[in-house]
Amino acid sequence: MKNIVSFSGGKDSTAMPLMMLERGIQVNEIYFADTGVEFPELYEYIDKVEEYIGHPIIRLQPAKSWDDHFYATYKRGKRKGERYGFPAVVYGCWARPKLKTEQLDKIHLPDSNVYIGIAADEKERTNRKAYTNSNCNYRFPLVEWGITEEDCINYLKAKGLENQLYERFSRLGCWMCPKQNLKSLRSLYLCYPEL
After folding, report:
1. Domain limits, the chain
2. Higher-confidence position of 116 and 96
3. By three-state DSSP, how is residue 137 classified?
């Protein structure tokens, strides 16, 4: 059975494979689902982690770009003919499934353990429909080991592997995410005017 790691470059998904390797857990493949709208520093960080662990991080590209989805129209339902446009702030975001989840679903094979970096203090996230209604064997080692978000931050700092984006943002994701808090939007405006 293959052990596949889903990697985002965030603190939890970075600490997890490092801890797995330290504990002697075999890591066969590490995948990063590139949305095409990541912060430039995230790509540099992925290279840094890849070099540190001596293991390739496979970059998956979406079949269609952010713009392709943004300008696409609904094909059925009450919004038929309307443009997708910007993801809704209140409800689910179309960008995550279209740009990340669909890519990762292709490599999550039924005969594999798929490791997801969710910290113990966010345990409720492991109950998502995507994880419970699947043929994959999803594993959440940080939850199993009782490792919190703060533990992940301290662990990465001790290794000199903290992601510098956390100096400006409390959460990482697509730079245009409408679910960012005001502090993050202010950082985006001040530090990334071109974005």
Report:
1. 2-64+95-167
2. 116
3. strand
Q: Which two tokens stand for residue 156?
A: 């990465």
Structure tokens that stand for 84 in this block: 């997708």
Instruction: Identify the CATH class of 2-64+95-167.
Output: alpha beta
The length of the chain is 195
What is the Cβ-side half-sphere exposure of residue 188, based on CA atoms within 13 angstroms?
20
Q: How far is CA 178 from the centre of its chain?
A: 16
Closest by alpha carbon to 117, among 150, 92, 149? 149
Q: Which helix (H) or strand (E) holds 3?
A: strand 2-6
Residue appearing with tokens 């889903």: 6
Q: Are strands 112-116 and 57-60 parallel, antiparallel or unpaired?
A: unpaired
pLDDT digits (tens, 9 = 90+) for 74-97: 899 998 998 877 766 556 677 777
